[in-house]
Amino acid sequence: MCLITFAWRTLPESPLVFLGxxxxxxxxxxxxxxxxxxxxxxxxxxxxxxxxxxxxxNRQGRFAVVTNFREGGSxxxxxxxxxxxxxxxxxxxxxxxxxxxxxxxxxxxxxxxxFYDGESLGYxxxxxxxxxxxxxxxxxxxxxxxxxxxxxxxxxxxxxxxQLQLRWSEEAMLDLMRxxxxxxxxxxxxxxxxKQWERMLSPAFIVNExxxxxxxxxxxxxxxxxxxxxxxxxDRDGLPxxxxxxxxxxxxxx
Length: 254
Fold this sequence. Notes:
Layout: E1 3-11, E2 14-25, E3 30-35, E4 42-47, E5 55-58, E6 63-68, H1 82-89, H2 94-103, E7 111-116, E8 121-125, E9 130-133, E10 137-141, H3 151-164, H4 170-176, H5 195-200, E11 211-221, E12 227-234, E13 240-248
Antiparallel strand pairs: 1-2, 1-10, 2-11, 3-4, 4-5, 5-6, 6-7, 7-8, 8-9, 11-12, 12-13
């Protein structure tokens, strides 16, 4: 993912509300969200180049999502960041997960990982080795540290807060992620990739012939623990091509 926002225990009827855009090169092959054929019961899209995923849930109610930490000129990494999500969803326990993130952090290019074990929500970045257990609240994240106030991060967080005050609407939530307003040049971050790329990547929803927003994900857990997951895919012109929807209750016996 490249831009996410989420509300954690701010609404009694919806303890977790998550929105995210996956931005990627259009030539990179991937499969849409589906139930994987594996013992963990993973529900996720799949990167067909490295075989991991950017976001997923499992039958036990675990959830994880990874964003890249943008930095120009970085060397190729030993391992794909997509496996950070799948390893957590396959059932690594909390302490072991924290330990492995610290021990193997240098094997990956820069990343941010948000993960939920059904009770607590955690955040880890291997840039600065940031580790946090998140308190209830509203958060947003792009390709820097959690809540770094890039223009699109600030705009999206404000938009989510306003939408949560209204009657629940899945379409309205998904529409929040289609904001194409670019940042002013003077507000652009400097992450080492050049002004032209910074400008192109500055909207929440990116439309470009080579690289753009490939899908938007919406996840909601209600007060009874039931999850709903919607994924909407887009073509290189930014037009929707498919919407997939899933609903399930965590399997506490698995």
